[in-house]
Amino acid sequence: MMDLRHKLPLITAAVIVTLIMGTRFVSSLLTNDIGGVDPRITLPPNQVQEIRERQRRQQVQAFASVSEGEVSRTEERIREATALALAASLFAATESLAHRIPVSDQALLSGVKKAGLLPPGMQQIDNSVLVTSDRGTLQVRYLPETLGIEVVSVGRERTDGPALLLRVPSMSTGNDDTRDVVLYMATRLDEITIPKPFVSEAQIIALGFAPEPLRAATLPSVDTAK
Asked: Could you identify which of 81, 107, 116, 215 might form a hypothetical disulfide with 166, taking C-beta atoms 3.0 to 4.6 angstroms apart as the criterion?
């Protein structure tokens, strides 16, 4: 009896150690089982198709958003170039009737600016033939002999659209009572060579530009002999 009483603390300690070791062993088994679960998820065929269709719609929407943005900005730049070309042509015609024909591109654009005819949002760059806008840079070209006007517009970014060339035909001294404004648009965004001033349409097209319809942009003919 005395031996058992002396050994009781040792027996108790052994039982506690056994319980601790057993708990750790069971815990390690459970951990291994949990870590061995296969993470792959199998989806029904119809759900896979639905996910693919959703991704396709998102891609189409993203492409449409970019395309619509480019179209919208290009249209805005066409309006800017048209407004600048008409302002320059109006000023040149007025000065011609007063026998004060501008002698150069720079003189023409400076006169347009001084007359307050620059379209809203445009600014002349350092008394040059260049004008800036929110969407790009525009260049005014001028042919004093016939009062011909061209405006070249280049976007700031790719999303602003392709290069544009707007031409107001030379003022006729004949019987034509209207002169159509002609628009040429680059057929690609990169590696475009801007045509030299007042070259033929064939040369413009050869450089990668295509004529585009431009409605409601005609000017009255001016008889420079008056």
From this structure: 81
